[in-house]
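Write out the 3D structure for:
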Amino acid sequence: MLVHVVKSKIHRVTVTEANLNYIGSITIDTDLMDAANIIANEKVSIVNNNNGERFETYVIPGQRGSGVICLNGAAARLVQPGDIVIIMAYAMMDMEEALTFKPAVVFPDTATNKLV
């Protein structure tokens, strides 16, 4: 049996931009992606702590060290700059591996979105 397990999590990061006219996705500072073991085009779930919205999209790498967290396309309607979100990626694995798996969890500074 395979189970879905949280693989990566960027916990409490601040939305810096919302770009309705972009094709879609979330742009994430590459430093945060690397620290959380998230890759370009990976599917992620996003939870908005300010309004309770939960949605999925895919990742586009943002400028390294910029702190950018930009929701693009339709997802831009679900956030406002300044909102606090949690970004999670999942993996499928067998039960035995899942019982000992340790996800990559990042706790950036919410004022700057930089790693602390």
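The longest strand covers residues 2-14.
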